[in-house]
């Protein structure tokens, strides 16, 4: 892997660590003393780092992770405790999160330890979640007088259904990795020592696929959450047709007919 230091493609930040492993960009949340609490500056840096990878043609897939104790244990409460309605509205407290949801390339979350509140919302905003057996998920905002504000009520309900989401959000209880898997909240559960490696392995597998088709496939799947079925089918069909304007479509089909490995160019 290429460390952040000394690589022009991976600048240094204060709250995130960035490295590359060939076509895979890896971003690690880096506030270990506070269990990677998500302060506003961290989210801004995370959005900067992931946007840079999104624009880098050499990067095909991303992995987002924390450390063994915590992916992220929630928002930085000390940063928010004394704010009023005017403050959070004027400053658009959660505005930077919207930049994360605009990332076009696939993002895999590698989750170990605590993944709570904003951390859970951040993981659910990723495209695939690899969870360690130690992972604990939850939306405990109700215990401090608020509700999830970065997508928790919406994404959790869409995946787990009204009744499980309602229980989790109204009680704030933690959900162990295996239960989260049963709810459909994670892709798979692996031993803690294998979590990051499995996420990187999967990212490399995705990175071997034609990049334009990968981005369109991600967009089509996400559209299923936004539209009725008929509109989603129309959107998918338009994307499918548009791929016939790419060099990769010609290469992929010719390679299949010629019984050889395709050479993707991202064009």
Molecular structure report:
A hairpin with a 2-residue loop joins β1 (16-21) and β2 (24-29). The chain has two domains: 16-207, 2-enoyl-CoA Hydratase, Chain A, domain 1, CATH 3.90.226.10; 211-257, Orthogonal Bundle (Lyase 2-enoyl-coa Hydratase, Chain  A, domain 2), CATH 1.10.12.10. The longest helix is centred in the N-terminal third of the chain and has 16 residues, at 40-55. By secondary structure, it is of the alpha/beta class. The radius of gyration is 19 Å and the shape is globular. The chain starts with 15 loop residues before the first strand and ends in a 10-residue tail after the last helix. It has a six-stranded mixed β-sheet with strand order 1-2-3-5-7-10, with helices on both faces. Helix content is 42%, strand content 15%. The protein has twelve helices and ten strands. α6 (152-160) crosses α7 (162-171).
Element layout with pairings:
Elements: E1 16-21, E2 24-29, H1 40-55, E3 61-65, E4 70-72, H2 77-80, H3 85-90, H4 97-100, E5 107-111, E6 114-116, H5 118-124, E7 128-132, E8 136-138, H6 152-160, H7 162-171, E9 175-176, H8 177-182, E10 188-190, H9 195-207, H10 211-223, H11 229-242, H12 247-257
Parallel strand pairs: 2-3, 3-5, 4-6, 5-7, 6-8, 7-10
Antiparallel strand pairs: 1-2, 8-9
């Amino acid at each position: 892997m290429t460390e952040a230091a000394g690589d022009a493609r991976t600048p240094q930040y204060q709250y995130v660590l960035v490295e590359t492993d060939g076509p895979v960009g890896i971003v690690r949340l880096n506030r270990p003393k506070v269990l990677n609490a998500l302060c506003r500056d961290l989210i801004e840096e995370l959005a900067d780092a992931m946007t840079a990878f999104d624009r880098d043609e050499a990067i095909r897939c991303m992995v987002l992770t924390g450390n063994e104790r915590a992916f992220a244990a929630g928002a930085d409460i000390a940063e928010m405790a004394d704010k009023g309605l005017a403050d959070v509205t004027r400053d658009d407290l959660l505005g930077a999160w919207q930049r994360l949801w605009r990332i076009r390339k696939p993002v895999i979350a590698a989750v170990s330890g605590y993944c709570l509140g904003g951390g859970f919302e951040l993981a659910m905003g990723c495209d695939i979640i690899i969870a360690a057996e130690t992972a604990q998920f939850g939306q405990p905002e109700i215990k401090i007088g608020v509700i999830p504000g970065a997508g928790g009520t919406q994404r959790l309900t869409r995946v787990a259904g009204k009744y499980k989401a309602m229980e989790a959000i109204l009680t704030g209880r933690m959900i162990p990795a295996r239960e989260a898997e049963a709810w459909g909240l994670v892709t798979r559960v692996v031993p803690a020592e294998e979590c990051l490696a499995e996420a990187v392995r999967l990212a490399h597998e995705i990175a071997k696929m034609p990049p334009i088709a990968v981005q369109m496939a991600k967009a089509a799947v996400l559209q299923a959450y936004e539209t009725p079925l008929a509109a989603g089918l129309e959107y998918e069909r338009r994307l499918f047709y548009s791929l016939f304007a790419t060099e990769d479509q010609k290469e992929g089909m010719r390679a299949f007919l010629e019984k050889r490995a395709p050479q993707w160019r991202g064009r």
